[in-house]
Amino acid sequence: MRYVDEYRDPALAAKLAERIAETVTRPWVIMEVCGGQTHSIVRYGIDRVIPPAVELVHGPGCPVCVTSLEMIDRAHAIASRPDVVFTSFGDMLRVPGSRGDLLHLRGQGADVRVVYSPLDALRIARENPSRRVVFFAVGFETTAPANAMAVWRARREGVTNFSMLVSHVLVPPVIATILQSAGNRVQAFLGPGHVCAVMGFREYASLSERYRVPMVITGFEPLDLLEGIWMTVRQLEAGRAELENQYVRAVSAEGNRPARDLVFEVFEVSDRKWRGVGSIPKSGLKLAHEYRAHDAERLFEVDDIVTRESPLCISGQILRGLKKPCDCPAFGRQCTPQTPLGATMVSSEGACAAYYQYGRYLESEAAREVPG
Questions:
Q1: How many CB atoms lie within 10 A of CB 153?
Q2: Each residue's pLDDT expressed in tens, for the chain with a length of 372 residues
Q3: Is 312 exposed, middle or buried (0-12, 13-18, 19+ CB in 10 A)?
Q4: N or C: the chain end with fewer CB closer than 10 Å?
Q5: Where are the alpha helices (DSSP H) in the chain?
Q6: Number of independent structural domains in the chain
């Protein structure tokens, strides 16, 4: 298929891997921010065709993975109410909270439905005026425009039984948090192509300048990632710290201005807690005051939540690039896609799910069986 196959050409991939090998002279640690990039890296073995001196670590760019345990438990509390139709994308249904997941709650009789768009949830609200319909709005800046549009339309159409449980997070603040954290190993970033397609990349240029780290906005196909790694290594080897855009076919400095304007009409920046990372100031979005009538947290009063995280799960360290899935003693054993202990194993974009899907849990098992 054109525009896909041309970015998966094995011969060109081999040449880019060769360029990286010719450029690198010392060890470097690069973090890919987006979960979609992580899956491509593991699926195509990109981390294994580049020189061992270039280590790729996996960042917090999986929106399902970083949705706080408190927010999952709030969703559970709202969905358990008999007057509620709770709607969500499918991958959120299996994320474990303190008291189980939404899929289990549905099995107990709760009206929990999978939708493919927030506008589907708005339609359900129109069709069921006697029910309170809630949409679980999670994600980075990429999904914010569609969620903003649903709330914008609900307000203008007077659909008063529609609300959102909002758990949007923003990428730049978490990058700053990683760089400021104790024990940080990350020396450069492959930036999130889809997020920047919406928001532009000017904020990433500021981060690169402030923290003196190279950042390359990168696509998701093998050639995108290999070229992005090569561009990043060139900067590191030359002692430069700049913002470069590899994903020029999709990303511009300004991003999608109409989508961005809608986001900041409906939402405002807020503090947000990230699962496995903690609370980060001004790292999320919440509904603006004018749209408070559609704010599920306010309508259902679910602030008083006590959480219980699995003591075995190390997803927080994985999301900060400190460890990898194979470093977790529960990986592939107590924690599998069928019995996940944390969101990084549940989500289609989670690093643990990627390692499991492409067989690296078998290598982890083999390493554990080696004596000594």
A1: 14
A2: 456 778 899 999 999 999 999 999 999 999 999 989 999 999 999 999 999 999 999 988 888 888 888 899 999 999 999 999 999 998 888 888 888 889 999 999 999 999 999 999 999 999 999 999 999 999 999 999 999 999 999 999 999 999 999 999 999 999 999 999 888 999 999 999 999 999 999 999 999 999 999 999 999 999 999 999 999 999 999 999 999 999 999 999 999 999 999 999 999 999 999 887 889 999 999 999 999 999 999 999 876 665 666 788 888 888 888 888 988 988 888 888 888 887 788 777 788 888 888 887 666 555 545 444
A3: middle
A4: C
A5: 10-23, 35-43, 46-49, 63-66, 69-79, 102-107, 118-127, 144-157, 171-180, 193-199, 202-211, 222-238, 257-266, 296-300, 315-319, 343-346, 351-357, 360-369
A6: 3
Both 127 and 275 in one domain: the answer is yes
One domain, residues 146 and 79: yes
Give whole-number Cα distances, 302 to 216, 266, 270, 287, 299, in Å.
Answer: 40, 22, 18, 16, 9
Rounded to the nearest 10 degrees, the angle between the axes of helix 144-157 and helix 257-266 is 60
Instruction: Produce one character per residue of 73-93: b if its CB has 16 or more CB atoms within 10 Å, e if not.
Output: bbbbbbbbeeebbbbbbebbb
Structural domain of residue 346, as residue ranges? 315-369
Is residue 308 situated within a structural domain?
no
Nearest CA-CA partner of 16 in 232, 208, 189:
232
Q: pTM above the 0.90 mark?
A: no
- Distances, alpha carbon 357 to alpha carbons 317, 336, 347, in Å: 20, 10, 11
